[in-house]
Amino acid sequence: MTRWPNHADAWRQWREALSGDRMHHGWLLAGKAGLGKRDFALAAARELVAQDGIPQPQDHPDIHIVTYSAKDDKEERKRQDGKPFELSKVIRERDVGAMQARLRTRPTLGSRRAIIIEPADDMNQHAANKLLKSLEEPPAGTFFLLVTHRPARLLPTIRSRCRIMRFPALSDRQLATMLEEAGVSPDPDAIAAAEGSFGAALRFAEQDLAPIARIIEQMLQGGEEGFGQRGELARLIGPRADRERMQAVLELAQALTARAARESDDSARRLRLIDAHGALARLAAEAPTANFDAGILLFEIGGLLVGAAPASEPAHG
């Protein structure tokens, strides 16, 4: 189990609420990806449903996780047969509906039930509207923990019915320690690019993103002559990059663009970098649910990076 040094305040809030007279029924666990929010949700849920004198199984019947399910009926049959299967790109109405069917019965082992939705910001519109009904009239003893990386993508009515618990980014020292505990060399480049996310730092090291980080920084610093740097970026990422690798590259590009914006003394350049960061964030949010084409994504990423570089400024005679 990963030790998360950034969870101390979250645990204080949770345990104070547990010991109080009125426990809020809805919780938003908010923060960037890679901060251990899912681990916290699972551990907090176990504390919530535990009851003195009743053995608590590892696979607890009163902890239900709503997440991506099989893509379609064909993939579901593969899952049932124990074969590899493809997941849906979003959490759908039927996923939330399956959870709600359980709410018609009482908890199995005690008086409380925990529902974890992860990641809640990947619910489609129908699923979000369906969940809202349960948040508006929660059954007695039912508590919701919504893990979210981008709370703004949730319906305002869902946010308003939940207590927000924010998870802070990790310090560079904390990241270095966690990487060592995971058996990974604490690469300073990985730590800098991760911007406080252990998940990002781990992916940086595991996917050998250091050369990609260097070419991205070159593109941000000086544009490119022709398409040479974009070609090198494509070569480093690889011709058969999967969705996970492309998502890691998008996160890396966002982090490096944000760092360049913070360090720039030129207001016009800073504005371009901020615009590029916003566009990269939108691209990262859309990529999992769009038709996946690594070539098109690479072209868009390269264009945004080059467009934010100093050399892209128009010349004035």
Order of strands across the biggest sheet? 2-3-4-1-5
Structural class: alpha/beta
Q: What proportion of the residues is helical, as a percent range?
A: 40-55%
Mean pLDDT: 89
CATH topology of the largest domain: Rossmann fold
Topology:
Blueprint: H1 8-19, E1 26-30, H2 37-49, E2 63-66, H3 73-80, H4 93-102, E3 113-117, H5 125-136, E4 142-148, H6 156-160, E5 163-166, H7 172-181, H8 188-194, H9 198-206, H10 210-222, H11 228-237, H12 243-263, H13 267-286, H14 294-307
Parallel strand pairs: 1-4, 1-5, 2-3, 3-4
Helix pairs in contact: 4-5, 8-9, 10-11, 10-12, 10-14, 11-14, 12-13, 12-14, 13-14
Describe the structure.
By secondary structure, the chain is an alpha/beta fold. It has two domains: 5-166, Rossmann fold (3-Layer(aba) Sandwich), CATH 3.40.50; 207-312. The protein is built from 14 helices and five strands. It has helices at residues 8-19, 37-49, 73-80, 93-102, 125-136, 156-160, 172-181, 188-194, 198-206, 210-222, 228-237, 243-263, 267-286, 294-307, and strands at residues 26-30, 63-66, 113-117, 142-148, 163-166. α4 packs parallel to α5 (125-136), α11 (228-237) crosses α14 and α13 (267-286) packs antiparallel against α14 (294-307).
Relevant terms:
DNA polymerase III delta prime subunit; 2 domains; disordered C terminus; Rossmann fold; 52% helix; alpha/beta; 14 helices; 317 residues; P-loop_NTPase; globular
